[in-house]
C-alpha cells in the first residue's frame, strides 16, 4: 500500500519535516543497497534522531499497517535493506553518537548509526581495540553490522560482531523499547535475547543502541604475503599453520583473476604469474609475533610458496593488506555488474570448493574471481557480468545454485557474513530444514504479528 497524506503528515510531526523525503529524485539513492541487480522505490524515507522517534514511527506503522525497512548506510550485499514498494525506509544514519567509552569495564556504548571505522578509531585512541572489520567498515554502521552479524578479515582469531555485543537497545515492532544485556562478563538470567536480535536482518526489531565489548590493543603485528603456483599449496599452508597451533589475526586468499584485477587497480607490486595469494598477519606480544611470523614463513615456503614478502614497517603492511581489502573494488572495474557472494565451507574443503567455483564458471561461460577468508572457510565467488544481459544473468543464477548446493553438500553454509535478505531466501529452506524454518516463522510472527518490519526478507 502507498503511504497516504495523513501518514506522511504524522511522520513529519514525529521526525520533523526536514527529515522526511518523498520526491522521486530524493528517494532514488534509497531504492537499492550494495546488492547488484536489485532496486525498488520506497514511498518515503524518514530519518530518525532518537529512540523515541523510532518508537513513535513503529506505533504509527502498526496503526496504519504500512511496511518499514530499517536502513543504515545501505552497504548490505543480500538485499536486506531493499525497500518495500511504496513503503517507508527508516534511516538511522543521523543517530551517530558515541555515548560512552568505559575504560574500567572495556565497553563502548554507541548509537546505531555510528560507522564501524569511527568505533575502531575511538577505541584505538583510548589504547583499546574493536576487532570486527567488515570490508565496508569505512561507511557501514554498527546497527547494520549487528543486524547482519557481520564478519571481517580478523574473524579467524577474534570472531565476528556477535562476539563483541554485550547489550542492545531495541524498539520492538509495536513501538515498545526493550534493553537487553549489560556490562557484566557473566550473565545467564533468562533467555539470551540479544543473540536473537543479532543477525535478525531488521525483521524482529529496530536496533537503536549497542553496548560493545573492547579488548586491549595488540602490542605488535607482522604482515606477509605468500604467492603460490597452485591453490592447494595455499590451502595446505593454512592447514599447517592451524596444526602448528598458530591462530593468525588474518589469513586471506586471492585467486589468479582477483590478483590480476587488484594489481591493475592498486599497483601494490603483486606477481602476475601465480595462481593463489595468501595474506597472513599475526599480532600480540612482540616476541610471540616474531616467533609466529617466522613459523608461518617457514610453512609457506615448505608448501612451495614462490615468494614470501614480509612487511618491514607499518606502511608496507598497509600496502600488502590493500591487496586483499581492495579485491571487491578491483573486480568491480571489470564489468558493469559485480555479484559478490559468500558461501562458506569447513576449512578442509576450501581448496575443493574454490576449484568447484572455477569449474562452474567455465561450465556457464562466466568470468569469476574468488577471494575471501581462507582461515575460516568463507569464500567470496564474484561473478563479473552485466545485469542488462538477461540471458547471462540467468546463467549466473544457475551457477550460484550449483555453488550453494555444493557448499551445503560439503557441510558448509549459504552465507558466512552477508545474510539472507532477498538474495538467498529461496535457498534458506533447503539449508535450514523444515523444523528450523517453522521456529523462525513462529518467532517472527510472535514479535511482529502485523508483519510491518522488513516484510519479504529472509523468508515469507
Detailed description of the structure:
With 460 residues, the protein is of the alpha+beta class. The chain has four domains: 5-91, Uridine Diphospho-n-acetylenolpyruvylglucosamine Reductase, domain 2 (2-Layer Sandwich); 98-216, Uridine Diphospho-n-acetylenolpyruvylglucosamine Reductase, domain 3; 220-328, Alpha-Beta Plaits; 335-432, Alpha-Beta Plaits (2-Layer Sandwich), CATH 3.30.70.2740. 36% of the residues lie in helices and 21% in strands. The protein contains 16 helices and 18 strands. The protein has helices spanning 5-15, 24-27, 51-64, 116-125, 142-148, 155-158, 193-197, 231-243, 256-266, 286-302, 314-325, 327-332, 350-363, 390-409, 428-432, 434-447, and strands spanning 20-21, 44-47, 68-71, 88-91, 98-102, 107-111, 128-129, 165-171, 177-181, 206-213, 215-216, 220-228, 250-255, 276-284, 307-310, 337-340, 367-373, 378-385. The strands form four sheets. The chain has a seven-stranded antiparallel sheet with strand order 15-12-14-13-17-18-16, sandwiched between helices. Strands 5-6-10-8-9 form a five-stranded antiparallel sheet. The protein has a four-stranded mixed sheet with strand order 1-2-4-3. A hairpin with a 5-residue loop joins strand 8 (165-171) and strand 9. Helix 8 (231-243) crosses helix 10 and helix 8 runs antiparallel to helix 13. The protein is globular, with a radius of gyration of 22 Å.
Amino acid at each position: 500500500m502507498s503511504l497516504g497524506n495523513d501518514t506522511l503528515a504524522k511522520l513529519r510531526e514525529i521526525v520533523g519535516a526536514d527529515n522526511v523525503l518523498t520526491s522521486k529524485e530524493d528517494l532514488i539513492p534509497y531504492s537499492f543497497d550494495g546488492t547488484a541487480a536489485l532496486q525498488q522505490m520506497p514511498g518515503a524515507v524518514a530519518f530518525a534522531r532518537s529512540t523515541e522517534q523510532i518508537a513513535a514511527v513503529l506505533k504509527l506503522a502498526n496503526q496504519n499497517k504500512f511496511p518499514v525497512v530499517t536502513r543504515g548506510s545501505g552497504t548490505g550485499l543480500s538485499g536486506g535493506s531493499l525497500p518495500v514498494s511504496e513503503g517507508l525506509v527508516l534511516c538511522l544514519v543521523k543517530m551517530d553518537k558515541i555515548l560512552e567509552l568505559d575504560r574500567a569495564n572495556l565497553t563502548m556504548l554507541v548509537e546505531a548509526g555510528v560507522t564501524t571505522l569511527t568505533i575502531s578509531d575511538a577505541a584505538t585512541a583510548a589504547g583499546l581495540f574493536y576487532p570486527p572489520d567488515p570490508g565496508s567498515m569505512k561507511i557501514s554502521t554498527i546497527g547494520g553490522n549487528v543486524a547482519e552479524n557481520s564478519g571481517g578479515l580478523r574473524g579467524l582469531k577474534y570472531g565476528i560482531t556477535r562476539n563483541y555485543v554485550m547489550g542492545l537497545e531495541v524498539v520492538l515492532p509495536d513501538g515498545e523499547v526493550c534493553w537487553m544485556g549489560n556490562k557484566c562478563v557473566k550473565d545467564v538470567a533468562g533467555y539470551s535475547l540479544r543473540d536473537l536480535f543479532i543477525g535478525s536482518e531488521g525483521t524482529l526489531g529496530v536496533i537503536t543502541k549497542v553496548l560493545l565489548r573492547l579488548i586491549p590493543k595488540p602490542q605488535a603485528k607482522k604482515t606477509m604475503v605468500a604467492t603460490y603456483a597452485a591453490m592447494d599449496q595455499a590451502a595446505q599452508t593454512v592447514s599447517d599453520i592451524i596444526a602448528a597451533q598458530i591462530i593468525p589475526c588474518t589469513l586471506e586468499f586471492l585467486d589468479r583473476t582477483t590478483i590480476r584485477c587488484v594489481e591493475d587497480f592498486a599497483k601494490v607490486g603483486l606477481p602476475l604469474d601465480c595462481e593463489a595469494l595468501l595474506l597472513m598477519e599475526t599480532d600480540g606480544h612482540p616476541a610471540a609475533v616474531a616467533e609466529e611470523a617466522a613459523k608461518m614463513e617457514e610453512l609457506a615456503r615448505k608448501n612451495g610458496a614462490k615468494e614470501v614478502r614480509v612487511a618491514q614497517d607499518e606502511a608496507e603492511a598497509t600496502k600488502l593488506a590493500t591487496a586483499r581489502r581492495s579485491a571487491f573494488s578491483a573486480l568491480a572495474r571489470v564489468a558493469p555488474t559485480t555479484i559478490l557472494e559468500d558461501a562458506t565451507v569447513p576449512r578442509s574443503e576450501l581448496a575443493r570448493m574454490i576449484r568447484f567455483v572455477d569449474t562452474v564458471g567455465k561450465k556457464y561461460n562466466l568470468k569469476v574471481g574468488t577471494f575471501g577468508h581462507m582461515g575460516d572457510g568463507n569464500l567470496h565467488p564474484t561473478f563479473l557480468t552485466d545485469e542488462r544481459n538477461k540471458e547471462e544473468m540467468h546463467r549466473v543464477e544457475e551457477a550460484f545454485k550449483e555453488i550453494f548446493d555444493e557448499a551445503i553438500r560439503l557441510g558448509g553454509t549459504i552465507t558466512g557474513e552477508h545474510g539472507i535478505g532477498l538474495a538467498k531466501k529461496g535457498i534458506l529452506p533447503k539449508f535450514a530444514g523444515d523444523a528450523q524454518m517453522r521456529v523462525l516463522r513462529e518467532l517472527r510472527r510472535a514479535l511482529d504479528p502485523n508483519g510491518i518490519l522488513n516484510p519479504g526478507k529472509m523468508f515469507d
